[in-house]
Amino acid sequence: MQPARAARAWAVPTIETVGGLAEWLRITPGELEWFADLKRMIARRSVDACEGPLSHYHYRILAKTGGDVRLIEAPKPRLKAIQKRILAEILEKIPVHPAVHGFRRGRSIKTFAAPHVGQRVVVRMDLRDFFPSISAPRVQAMFRMTGYSETVANLLGGVCTNATPRALWSEKASALDPLRVADARHLYAWPHLPQGAPTSPALANICAYRVDCRLTGLAEASGAVYTRYADDLAFSGGRDFERCSERFALHAAAVLLEEGFAVHHRKTRIMRRGVRQYLAGIVTNEHLNLIRRDYDLLKATLTNCVRHGPESQNREGHADFRAHLKGRVSFVEMVNPKRGARLRNLFDRIAW
Length: 352
Hints:
This protein is of the alpha+beta class. The protein is built from 15 helices and ten strands. Helix 5 crosses helix 6. It is globular and about 60 Å long.
């Protein structure tokens, strides 16, 4: 395979054969085929074998707000080490679209929201089932575009994707909505990017390059700017964009549908200047700021920790409550340093 024209400058390793790929990953060819599982043998196993010694993932089913179902698929240590090598040596060498701010060095939620500060209208959209919507054939095509042979690309794609055993749902999702579980069982049964694998964020950004290009072009034609943080999409602009914002949201949803993604329409928001404009928990009306209610709640939690001890405030049972609070305080410091300094002072006074 010859790499695509744009891929010729990417500094990815040259791997020409299955044996070469196995050697590069420091495993045997048999182990490579087992980890890739291109015939989906593991997905056909019984309930007892779903997380047994022959399975490559640990599974955790979560109920999202609104009744939807999310599956966390965490690779076991050996597979995780292989995926980390693919991430460091191949995926991090492949550039992503400039509009992408999630899972990139030097980018954050703050840089995602910053281009939309002070705009007359902000349109926020959310993608449904972002990671499982990206299929194994799509990932394998990306590796072929990079220049790897079909056999090598298929194995790389197999190592980075997973088909969830259908039997898993009958045991672990018995308390959830049966209709939502049935939809999730069908979605996750096909090889997809697992949410929990170290390679999935980078692969999702790379595979979404075409849709990012199309949405950027659509936004520019409408007088708007576009940024994306994982499955959160944001568009904003002035008067011209304000007049066509509702029609624009429909066009953007159609583009996403053509590219294999679905919009969570209940979460679409068209926020004009007269209301609070916020993206990923950050207010963007005049300058970047925290939602006041979230700031006040965190401040009250820290104050009560100082007065009554941190154990009294750990109502959600966090295993490391100190790290949890420290992360929330650091987030405030990143968005609003002045307010963050006040919270940091309270955090430092807690008797751990």
